[in-house]
Amino acid sequence: MKRFLLLLLSCGVLLHESALAQSLTLDKPTAKSLNKVKPKDIKAHVKYLADDRLLGRQPGTPGYQMAVDYVVDHYKKAGVEPAGENGTYLQLVRLRKSFIGKDAALSVLDAQGNEMKLTDGKEFSIYPHAEEQQVSINAPLVFAGYGISAPDLGYDDYAGIDVTGKIVVVLRGAPASFPSTVSAYSRDMMTVLQTAADKGAVGVVVATANPKGRVPNLQRGTYSVMDANGKVAVSRNYVSEKIKVLANIDAKTFHQLLQGAALDTAQVVPGLKKGTTASAPLGYTLRASYNSTYQDFESQNVIGKITGSDPQLKNEYVVHSAHLDHVGIGAPVNGDSIYNGAHDNASGVASVLEIAKIYSRLPEKPKRSVLFVMVTAEEMGLLGSAYFARYPTVPVQSIVADINTDMPTIIAPLLSVVGLGANHSTLENEVAAAAQHLGLAVEEDPEPEQMRFIRSDQYSFVTQGIPALHIKYGNKTKDGQNNLNKQVEAWRAVHYHKPQDGFENGTFDFDAGKKYVQLNFLISYQVANNPQRPTWKPGDFFGTRFVQ
Ligand SMILES: [Zn+2]
Fold first, then answer.
1. 53 Cα to the center of ligand 1, angstroms
2. 294: part of which helix (H) or strand (E)?
3. What is the DSSP letter of 310?
4. pLDDT tens digits, residue range 9-42?
5. Distance 322 CA to ligand 1 centre (A)
6. In angstroms, what is the span from residue 310 Cα to ligand 1's centroid?
7. Contact assessment for residue 80 and residue 318, using Cβ atoms and an 8 Å cutoff
């Protein structure tokens, strides 16, 4: 430990062993650079990126290209090196929007061959297939609860059933006993699809048990990233060519199918929540055929680097990520149809640009290198980050951590924070020390049911086995009411994913923005200088699932 502290001392960071997770002292140049962050610079970034001229930064549009050019320009001004493809700052992301044909057909046949044709958009809906334009399938149905296989958590919907060559019918959910981040991961469509494929299924039908539930309208299309050979590289609703159909059915149909196996919905549904599985063959066969059409277009991730100072460790990378895109033009609200995305996520991009400037001002760079990754298509399903984490421009095993910033919601003084995901790895220590250095309290996630851990780009790194976190505001308020989440909730109701999330007339606390920048810098700075790379906690749910 003495040698370790000396090592940290040698690179400008001093940690007091007793409160290792509590405090750090910076050398003068680092402290100076940290304090040079200007709220007005953060403001200027948000003002430009949220300008109406960028038309809400939709990938594949000139507005998004303007945002790319802005980031590249600021990387250059800050002396951030290119770390994209072919010596550029860019990584090409081939996006495909897939549409389901109007002639989709789905029916179920009982054991006697009686066919029940279902109505598209009412009793069923089918996801387009991102690779095969015409699909026909005919296979037996098996009920598989939530479609979760987690024997390590004492729950497995696939125990005792064989779904090889069959189509599984599942409900979206997870047992109440699952911890919030594990529950969020288990309910994620990609997890359900991957588990079904791993078990040999050829299709997944997602049912609702809620009589008022409506099947999702999929006419708007779904997004994927394609590779150079026209194959799916990453997607949020496609895992492999094994899964030929992904569909939804309504509660009436679900109830009828369950009756085919003498299962009563009224007992099965609460039982699952309590962790009691009820998987069984349903005695029905599903028949489906559908066509898909495509719209292909290109976008870019924008990647810069500050090279580390240690001959060895400079080949390892700490990533700061933020999504550069937003939802573009949409349904008008109070006459405004430009979704400017000032908080979501111009403020996150602004934070990463200022973090890069802190690093660029340091006379002595940290031991490890730092990557600044502005990703596209987050609003299309975390696609830009999923593509980067899956096909990074540096060796994936050299990426030691991801610190993501997405809509930090800087609408009030920042007095406490939540390190979403930090509690799964040793990153928890760096968060605590950085927060303590800035006089910030660290809190538990006040809204675990929001599944925020899997809803932004850090999740793409987690699924590649890389410890990751996302710093969100905590509840602490100056007046001691400590109900900031209530204020944020009220703000979100009016602004989140609305044209009202603009710069003009927006609510911003750019001093909180400065503190947010400093906090995220201090986390990565410690990681970049720590001889030990971050690790998942022993036996951690994500660490055990994703580390190769
Ligand atoms: Zn966002």
1. 20
2. strand 280-306
3. S
4. 444 454 444 444 557 889 999 999 999 999 999 9
5. 8
6. 34
7. no
Give the SS3 label for residue 459: helix
Phi-psi label, residue 113: left if phi above 0, alpha if psi -120 to 50, beta otherwise? left
Q: Which of 474, 503, 59 is nearest to 495 (CA)?
A: 503
Tallying the residues shown for the chain, one arrives at: 548
Give residue 510 CA to ligand 1 midpoint distance, Å: 18
For the chain, residues classed under CATH 3.50.30.30 are 98-294
Output the CA 338–ligand 1 centroid distance in Å.
16
User: How far is the centre of ligand 1, averaged over its atoms, from the C-alpha of 106 (Å)?
Assistant: 35
Q: How far apart are CA 164 and CA 168, in angstroms?
A: 10
Query: Cβ(136)–Cβ(106) under 8 Å?
Result: no
Alpha carbon distance 32, 34 (integer Å): 5
pLDDT of 50-102, one tens digit each?
999 999 999 999 999 999 999 999 999 999 999 999 999 999 999 999 999 99
Q: Which fold has domain 98-294?
A: Glucose Oxidase; domain 1 (3.50.30)
Token pair listed for 364: 């002595």
Task: Say if CB 166 and CB 202 are below 8 A apart.
Answer: yes
Beta partners for 294?
98
Which amino acid would we find at residue 49? Answer: L
Interior CA angle at 383 toward 44 and 52, to 5°?
30
- Per DSSP, the three-state class of 150 is strand
Write out the two tokens for 225. 């990233």
- Per the DSSP assignment, residues forming a β-bridge with 124 are 120, 249
Q: Note if the pTM is more than 0.85.
A: yes
CATH entry 3.40.630.10 includes domain 35-96+296-545 = yes
Model pLDDT, residue 1: 43
Rg (CA), the chain: 24
Bridge-based pairing state of the strands 134-143 and 167-171: parallel
Token reading at 527: 């990681």
| CATH 3.40.630.10 location in the chain | 35-96+296-545
